[in-house]
Amino acid sequence: MFPSLLVFVLFLLYSEIKAVPSKPVKVEKNIDDFHLNLYKNVVALKSNDNVFISPYSVGLALASVTAGARGKTEKELLNLLHSKSREKLTQSSKQLMAITNMSEIKLANRLYVDITFPILPSYTKQLQKTYNFTLASVNLNPQNKTRVIDQINQWVSNQTNNYIKEVLSKDSLDVKDPNEANALLIINCLFFDGKWESEFEAQNTVAGYSFYPDVGPPQEKKLTLMMRNGLFPYADMSSTIGAQMIHVPFQNKDFTFTIILPNKDIKLAQVESRLTPAIFNTPTTNQMAVLSIPKWKFEFENDMKDVLSKKMKISELFNRTKANLKELSLKKPIYVSNVIHKTYVIVDEKGVRAAAASVVRMISQGSPPIKIYFRCDKPFLYAIRYKQTILFIGRYVKVIDTSNMPPIIDGGYGR
Ligand SMILES: *[C@@H]1O[C@H](CO)[C@@H](O)[C@H](O)[C@H]1NC(C)=O
Ligand SMILES: *[C@@H]1O[C@H](CO)[C@@H](O)[C@H](O)[C@H]1NC(C)=O
Ligand SMILES: *[C@@H]1O[C@H](CO)[C@@H](O)[C@H](O)[C@H]1NC(C)=O
Ligand SMILES: *[C@@H]1O[C@H](CO)[C@@H](O)[C@H](O)[C@H]1NC(C)=O
Ligand SMILES: *[C@@H]1O[C@H](CO)[C@@H](O)[C@H](O)[C@H]1NC(C)=O
């Protein structure tokens, strides 16, 4: 078991922590509200479990969906993300994306579109422009899906430094209704690798402490704690939320590891219910402290569709007949079937590594069965024409070795 008494929050660049010298990127405060609301609603469904999510990753994935939505579907999403308009959302997304250039961060967005699905070029352009998406056209509906699933998992694994190896399980592209097919996957990957400003000494890491959960008996002698002394930005918030807060600094002061520890006899759930974005930004003072935090690694997985539909008022997006995604494709129906979210975190003496992947999967009507298979596996003729004029003409009658052609990377041309 892992500690459930502490809230660990990875603060990214957009946080405004007063006592830590930083140059925060100004972001509409209300996106922060979505980030915290998502956390609150996930923990509400997992009352006694460890949780680790990246609201940032889920938010960016949903913002890119919003770019294709209109009508009530769009309104629901804008309300969810606390954005007044799609222009405002685009603007704040761009600001959120600004963390890309930090060396601690690896951020990647990719759109996998089924080869038969007619996606609107205006939509893909916008994804490229605002969110720096790369595009991949693949067969998302082959008889045997192993290969395409492996290909996507490989990409996500690569983007997350191999921390998230199987974002898609073997059955995650299965389609129940024979008239339906996978249309596209919108994927966001986020990887963070931060080193503590001061490392914890390995010799001060000691196993065998007891942990005192809010529910149930103590977990005797199970906990491993790392320890160090130092000056830390600290706030006593006993009078407001019944907890204390400390910011553990990374080498790069723009990032902070914030810990909120409930006071004695106060349950974490009580503190969580009072959390607001402003609480994380409570002014701190630098205090000498002996810091003891667990060493751990933890993997988490959740289909965010549950939380979004049951608790956060997103209904049209997941509804086959109601979803309005007409800026994404003119084909109907098109709707979201899952929002897969996987994360991983390691906290140790050197620092924190954390990874997240969010996959928004969209389903559409299946394409009519393909009747024509045009496979050039025997000699053929080819020509390059301008209107009716043949500019070039040739034949391909025996295999030409292509082993020394460079691979084509993300839309470039091999030479
Ligand atoms: C990242 O980009 C922002 C502007 O977009 C710039 O102000 C900042 O210095 C950059 N940071 C690094 C580490 O390059
Ligand atoms: C856009 O994405 C590509 C591929 O993931 C990456 O190499 C590039 O640095 C990104 N550009 C920006 C501005 O983030
Ligand atoms: C699907 O393809 C993979 C390799 O791409 C293969 O290993 C597997 O046996 C195939 N499964 C079925 C059911 O054909
Ligand atoms: C990701 O892929 C690139 C290119 O194939 C490779 O150079 C890099 O080492 C890979 N990164 C990881 C973490 O596997
Ligand atoms: C979708 O919306 C329709 C019309 O309001 C409703 O009848 C149906 O139950 C909804 N489907 C789901 C899966 O919620």
Condensed summary:
This is Serpin domain-containing protein. By secondary structure, this protein is of the alpha+beta class.
Provide mean pLDDT, rounded.
88
Radius of gyration: 25 Å
Strands, count: 14
Q: Write the CATH architecture name of the largest domain.
A: 2-Layer Sandwich
Q: What is the assembly state of the chains in this entry?
A: single chain
Q: Give start-end ranges of low-pLDDT stretches.
A: 1-22, 410-415
Would you write up a description of this structure?
This protein has nine helices and 14 strands. The protein is of the alpha+beta class and 415 residues long. The protein folds into two domains: 251 residues, 2-Layer Sandwich (Antithrombin, Chain I, domain 2); 93 residues, Alpha-1-antitrypsin, domain 1 (Roll), CATH 2.30.39.10. Strands 1, 5, 6, 7, 8 and 9 form a six-stranded antiparallel β-sheet that branches. Strands 3-2-4-12-11-10 form a six-stranded mixed β-sheet, with helices on both faces. The longest helix has 17 residues. The protein is elongated. The termini are far apart. The structure holds 2-acetamido-2-deoxy-beta-D-glucopyranose (5 copies). One 2-acetamido-2-deoxy-beta-D-glucopyranose (NAG) binds next to loops.
